[in-house]
Amino acid sequence: MASVSAASVTFRALSKPSLKSNETSSLKVVSLGWRKNGFPSLRSSRFRVSCAQAKPETVDKVCEIVRKQLALPAEAELTPESKFSAIGADSLDTVEIVMALEEEFDISVEEESSQNITTVQEAADLIEKLVQKKPEA
Amino acid sequence: MGGANAPRRLSGMQKQVLALYRGFLRAARSKSPDDRRRVESIVSAEFRRGARQVDRKNFLYIEYLLRRGKKQLDQLRSPDTTALSSLNFIPPSQSVDSRK
């Protein structure tokens, strides 16, 4: 049990050499989830790691871009759970949002995954994953 | 338009249209900022006009638009192309094909 969690912790540390303050907080969340589950099987731990929650600043940035792209009024509510369709974005808007996110984060989103994005949170999670994959220049 | 909450399943043709749109926006990135803005506004207006006006079941016409769009995209990709004035040309058939 202990060895499993240790292995996945080093994995996280390896994939992101720059340990920031939020990094530790997200680690805490992961281990908490295990304790609650009581079933730290290899499968569940892998799953948890792969869909690690995006950093708050990534979510904020995504929100900002979505706002700009859709020209949302400042008072319009936009949460990470907001569905793009619910805030008035059609499929063309979604393409524009994804393109803008690509530029902002300097990543390239594949055709298929971009069509599965329906909320800010999903977009932020995907970005987080792609940014981590990107070789550090 | 599909239900707001149902997970959107796009048809093959819708995917093609969106892929074409993406292609245009990608190609526009390679232009100078001014040209890019112009190209983007034209392309966006063109796609939105299509989304509004073209009957969703008019597959032949949509296929024609897709083919035409692909050709225009190929031309836009050439580094010599800086503007998309050709997209401003709207064939008069537009007014004929809908509503009776």
Automatic annotation (TrEMBL), chain A:
Q: Where is this protein localized, as stated in its record? A: Plastid, Chloroplast
SUPFAM superfamilies found in the cross-reference section: ACP-like (SSF47336)
What is the official name of this protein in its record?
Acyl carrier protein
Which HAMAP family does this chain map to? Acyl_carrier
Under the heading Gene3D superfamilies, the entry gives: ACP-like
Q: Which family is this protein grouped under?
A: Belongs to the acyl carrier protein (ACP) family.
Annotated function: Carrier of the growing fatty acid chain in fatty acid biosynthesis.
Gene Ontology, cellular component aspect? chloroplast
NCBIfam families with a match to the protein in the record: acyl_carrier
GO terms assigned for molecular function: acyl carrier activity; phosphopantetheine binding
Q: Which UniProt keywords apply?
A: Chloroplast, Fatty acid biosynthesis, Fatty acid metabolism, Lipid biosynthesis, Lipid metabolism, Phosphopantetheine, Phosphoprotein, Plastid, Transit peptide
**Carrier domain: which residues?**
56-131
Q: Name one Pfam family in it.
A: PP-binding
UniProtKB/TrEMBL annotation, chain B:
First and last residue of the signal peptide:
none
Q: Which PANTHER family match?
A: LYR MOTIF-CONTAINING PROTEIN 2 (PTHR13675), SUCCINATE DEHYDROGENASE ASSEMBLY FACTOR 1, MITOCHONDRIAL (PTHR13675:SF1)
Q: What is its main location?
A: mitochondrion
| Domain of life, source organism | Eukaryota
**Compartments, record wording:** Mitochondrion matrix
Give the transmembrane ranges.
none
The protein in question is named Complex 1 LYR protein domain-containing protein
Write out the similarity annotation: Belongs to the complex I LYR family. SDHAF1 subfamily.
Q: What GO cellular component is one of the record's annotations?
A: mitochondrion
Q: Lineage of the native species?
A: Eukaryota, Viridiplantae, Streptophyta, Embryophyta, Tracheophyta
Q: What are the residue boundaries of the Complex 1 LYR protein domain, all occurrences included?
A: 15-75
Q: Which organism is it from?
A: Eucalyptus grandis (Flooded gum)
